[in-house]
Amino acid sequence: MLKQSTSKAKTLGWTVLVLEDDMALQNIILMQFQRSGMHVMTARSVKEALDLLQRLPTCDVFWVDHSLLGEESGLDFVIKIKKINAWRKTPIYVVTNNDGDDKKKRYLHYLKLGIDNYLTKYDHELKEIVQMIKKDIQKIH
């Protein structure tokens, strides 16, 4: 399910695409970004995200979970998005719960693809991650 939402708080005009399969967590993330004044678009799978991006005039940052609905992962999304000129330079934050044995290998793979940050959800408070992303966007704009 795709969602588009904005905050009633002062809007900064920045848009974040949250690619997260867990609906409850997706809604919490959405509310945190709204409170910080950002527009939020959400998707639960790579296909949903790519379909949404075809209709989206702008996106300032991607929040990407590694595990997603369907057979494709966040890694697949990053590979595909880096091939699309319009989105190639958009900052990507991989924010995941995955902390298995292959974490280091997966982390290095994401870095080679050019992501901006790789964070595990349990190491950071959600509000902290949102503020980190907001500060990075402010540097760009």
From TrEMBL:
GO terms for biological process: phosphorelay signal transduction system. It comes from the Bacteria. Residues 15-136 form the Response regulatory domain. Keywords: Phosphoprotein. Gene3D superfamilies: 3.40.50.2300. Pfam families: Response_reg. InterPro entries: Bact_response_regulator (IPR050595), CheY-like_superfamily (IPR011006), Sig_transdc_resp-reg_receiver (IPR001789). The modification 4-aspartylphosphate is found at residue 65. The lineage of its organism: Bacteria, Candidatus Komeiliibacteriota. This is Response regulatory domain-containing protein. SUPFAM superfamilies: CheY-like.
